[in-house]
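Appendix B. Raw example, untouched.
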Amino acid sequence: MIAPAHAAPRARRHLLSPSLPHGEAPEAAWSTPLDPTELRRVLRRMRVWEPFDTDALLDDVGTALDDVPPAEEHRRELAERLRGHLAQLVDIAISGGADRKDTTTLTLIENARAIRSEVMPMDPRRAVVHLRRTAWTVNELLERLLATGHLTNVNPA
């Protein structure tokens, strides 16, 4: 059976404004908790966000701390990855309040920030020292966050 043309608007109206049970008031319209500028900032950060990858972190730390220094052509890329690991660990520590609860973690965060602000030296020996200091700090901060319970379900080798 085909419904008459005048029946469709009534059905559509019913879907758009369903009747509420007796005595209930309609809910207030939803509004965003952030202003448009803040929403754009959050969206930009989400677009570049990378999930925490313990395996990649441990691989990079191992490469930097190995007895054989990384090849010169790979050092800058490794340094950037280690800086990224430091940034993620610092963010995890701060968001979990580890910097307020533990002075050792606070010291490691300060060291991490200092190392991240340094430019990798051009001299090959100094560049290797810089990579190893960075990797050591990544490893120490990871272990501290695990020990204090700010990171869980991580299986360091």
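End of appendix B.
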